[in-house]
């Protein structure tokens, strides 16, 4: 008999037909009712054991966590909670799970904290919550590729090990093949990088943008989707040392086109999971309601998870210039009453997360695209506006998570770019190839970066970013 | 007017309609015929300049490499070589390209060696060859996701920074946040990793398999597709220090199922590009014929590129046990005549690339799956056969490139796994979480790793692996 997935049986199984499944025991009631799950979907398949046919010894070996092979006949269920169930004809224990040992793990049938689940990240995907989160993460990834491929973008893998720091923030991890106990030195007592694997200092990428730009200027429309790294010592619920980023880059595209792309893209991928992951989303929606039920009413979300997603896909993102945003912030209550940690006093201030959240959650009550930021708080590659003081930057801000997208129109003018690099003390020699692209058929072009885990957070309603990636990396945390 | 891609105009453009394009000049004949390309496809769009309407000064600024905006009317072409062309109504220079400077680059219209192109990797995607290779690479990537998602696999991103070495080969890059000039030491003069970013030694992953296994044992069927790293000092046409790997992992699946999956998967993705990338493949086929025309006849490929791809998708891969392969090799001519560098004398020998190529290219003349290798030449996690001397390993060998897939059924039995780790001196404490999965509902499961760049090499016919990834990383090479 061919094995069938539980997802298939629950959605398309035929009554009176025989099926064979391989799956794990999620619960075992009354020595009779087995709830089986194989990871293909959230819901379990109830399998009914004819207890009289098996001796006590055998039944005792069936525990939560066991892997079983079951053959049986599908029938309509008498009990509540499921439409169909399987009458077991044969049952085989493939892999045991000692009940005493299970009790010590998060597989045991009681409520475990998310912190506890993180400590057993190798098992947490077997829980309902993490099964749902990771299936959603997978579907969202696919939606990303599907969107860009349908829109004729070429997927580009930019290098992970580089010797440049795209953002210039200096928060890169060093990559080396040296024995750290005995670093080779030069005559001048400097590190002798010539002897290292790559013959020069190497680090992990913070962004594939600069390389993606070189490809957009040949292929027209490209996107990356790969891991990026920040050696930043921040222990927050929004930061990871290793995270996945999506970076489209488009030739012959200005900032307006870039905003259109970001909005269209985000709406597409959210629509995609609304269509393909209803069951998992409904489960996570209930989870969030339970989680928030312990909070005071005013701290709970106004919308349910699915309402929030549908709100995003069916409303325009509000586009606001930085200058307008500063005016709003200067005049707003929390600023006047000094409730903000950072009081906005004048144009030029860098916006903090508290200001972004105020704009999105209190003032506009919808996703917001801020654009045209002061040049001196943004990166060297952003296009200078005619006012000579703002750049064509944009950030997309989302309720609950703040900045989800950061992008810009790129400075395509050779002289302006080189001037800017001089001002910001960026090494022109290191980035000769980047500058070179402005010599040969330069053109206006734009792109953005979207932190994939922030998107997964938004879609799943998980409040800690460590709970939307299989094995999170954060300061002092490299488990698994 | 809305801008249209050249791909769209060439495939679906309507005669007498007006179009607007943004693209780069590939050639400019007789001050009149512009071959324009925007990266959307291989072929150029011919645009005809009414020379009489423009002064010499202006025409002189139009060079190869320039970015232009052109509006004009589509008409049937009088000339040879193209079906349609555009009568230019307006033309705007968006980005210049100085002809003297172009002459110094690979954009200049003459034959450049692949080595030369590598030195200007930021520009090479603008050539026909690299445009075709990178479009194929993009489509192949998408086919990978499409295959697994259609087959209900969940995409899993396994960590890039780890503190384990899955293969145990010790060829990992170190990741650190230390200032290499001043490494903190302990009292015992050891490196004080507690003070490093993660609080312990960290390295770049060589494989996501072990983490993928933990996910397969919850979600059932998973796959990874991400970068992996080898700090191996090999300067060959088949090795990169940073490459992308695809690693499916399937619960309740034995080695036969694993072989079926590998074969089905490879055939699917090749079929996909045969269907979607005909034009680029035909171009690369011609390129290969030209490249091989300088070789003596017996060194040229017997099949053309597309014939070779179709051969793979329409024939069964030959499945041969390691033991059978050794018998064939012991008896074969090059072994008897000592033409091999490594003479096969007895069972247990590790196969070299020369042996694999003999089996694939001379003996079987088709893709080969070798399986059931001696345990002592394979990794600790492979399932021991009943003979106690072979393991359920498999390698898929391809003509021209050798090993493209390496996989195995995994050792699911707790005691056998732990014994094996002891024998091979693998640290049980480090891999506690991996071993743990064998305690809770273990089951037979299998998976494999496919080096993505080797697949791209096979599909594009490019002989050097550095030419199928945008910015290759190899020993002493970290440019761009």
UniProtKB/TrEMBL annotation, chains A, B:
InterPro entries: Aa-tRNA-synt_II, aa-tRNA-synth_II, aa-tRNA-synth_II/BPL/LPL, Asn-tRNA-ligase, Asp/Asn-tRNA-synth_IIb, NA-bd_OB-fold, NA-bd_OB_tRNA
Compartment(s): Cytoplasm
CC per GO annotation: cytoplasm
Keywords, in A-Z order: Aminoacyl-tRNA synthetase, ATP-binding, Cytoplasm, Ligase, Nucleotide-binding, Protein biosynthesis
GO biological process entries: asparaginyl-tRNA aminoacylation
Main location as per UniProt: cytoplasm
Top enzyme category: ligase
Record-annotated Aminoacyl-transfer RNA synthetases class-II family profile domain positions: 134-470
An MF annotation (GO) of this entry: asparagine-tRNA ligase activity
Annotated EC: 6.1.1.22
Catalytic activity: tRNA(Asn) + L-asparagine + ATP = L-asparaginyl-tRNA(Asn) + AMP + diphosphate + H(+)
TM stretches of this protein: none
Pfam families xref list: tRNA-synt_2, tRNA_anti-codon
Family (UniProt): Belongs to the class-II aminoacyl-tRNA synthetase family.
Record's subunit section: Homodimer.
Protein name: Asparagine--tRNA ligase
Organism listed in the record: Mesohalobacter halotolerans
């Amino acid at each position: 008999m061919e094995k069938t997935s539980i997802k298939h049986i629950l959605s398309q199984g035929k009554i009176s037909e025989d099926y064979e499944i391989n799956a794990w025991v999620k619960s075992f009631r009354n020595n009779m009712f087995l709830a089986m799950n194989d990871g293909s979907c959230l819901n379990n398949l109830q399998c009914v054991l004819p207890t009289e046919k098996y001796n006590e010894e055998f039944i005792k070996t069936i525990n939560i966590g066991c892997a079983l092979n079951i053959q049986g006949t599908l029938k309509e269920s008498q009990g509540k909670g499921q439409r169909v169930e399987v009458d077991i004809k044969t049952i085989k224990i493939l892999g045991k799970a000692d009940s005493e040992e299970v009790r010590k793990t998060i597989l045991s049938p009681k409520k475990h904290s998310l912190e506890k689940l993180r400590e057993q990240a190798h098992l947490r995907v077997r829980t309902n919550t993490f099964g749902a989160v990771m299936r959603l993460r997978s579907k969202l990834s696919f939606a990303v590729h599907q969107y860009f491929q349908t829109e004729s973008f070429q997927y580009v893998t930019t290098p992970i090990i580089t010797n440049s720091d795209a953002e210039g923030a200096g928060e890169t991890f060093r990559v080396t093949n040296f024995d750290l106990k005995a670093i080779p030195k030069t005559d001048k007592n400097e590190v002798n990088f010539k002897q290292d694997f790559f013959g020069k200092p190497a680090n992990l990428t913070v962004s594939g943008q600069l390389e993606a730009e070189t490809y957009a200027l040949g292929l027209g429309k490209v996107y990356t989707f790969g891991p990026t790294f920040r050696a930043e010592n921040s222990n927050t619920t929004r930061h990871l040392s290793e995270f996945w980023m999506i970076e489209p880059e488009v030739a012959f595209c200005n900032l307006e086109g870039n905003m259109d792309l970001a909005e269209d893209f985000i709406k597409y991928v959210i629509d995609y999971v609304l269509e393909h992951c209803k069951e998992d989303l409904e489960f996570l929606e209930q989870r969030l309601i339970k989680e928030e039920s312990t909070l005071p009413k005013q701290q709970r979300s106004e919308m349910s998870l699915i309402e929030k997603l549908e709100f995003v896909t069916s409303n325009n993102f509000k586009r606001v210039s930085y200058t307008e945003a500063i005016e709003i912030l200067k005049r707003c209550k929390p600023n006047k009453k000094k409730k903000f940690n950072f009081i906005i006093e004048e144009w030029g201030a860098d916006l903090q997360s508290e200001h972004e959240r105020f704009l999105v959650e209190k003032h506009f009550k919808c996703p917001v695209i801020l654009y045209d930021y002061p040049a001196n708080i943004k990166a060297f590659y952003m296009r200078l506006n005619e006012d000579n003081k703002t750049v064509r930057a944009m950030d997309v801000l989302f309720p609950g998570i703040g900045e989800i997208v950061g992008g810009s129109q790129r400075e395509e003018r050779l002289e302006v770019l080189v001037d800017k690099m001089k001002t910001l003390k960026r090494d022109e020699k290191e980035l000769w190839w980047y500058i070179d692209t402005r010599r040969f058929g330069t053109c206006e072009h734009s792109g953005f970066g979207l932190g994939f885990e922030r998107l997964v957070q938004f879609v799943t309603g998980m409040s800690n970013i460590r709970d939307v990636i299989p094995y999170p990396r954060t300061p002092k945390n490299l488990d698994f």
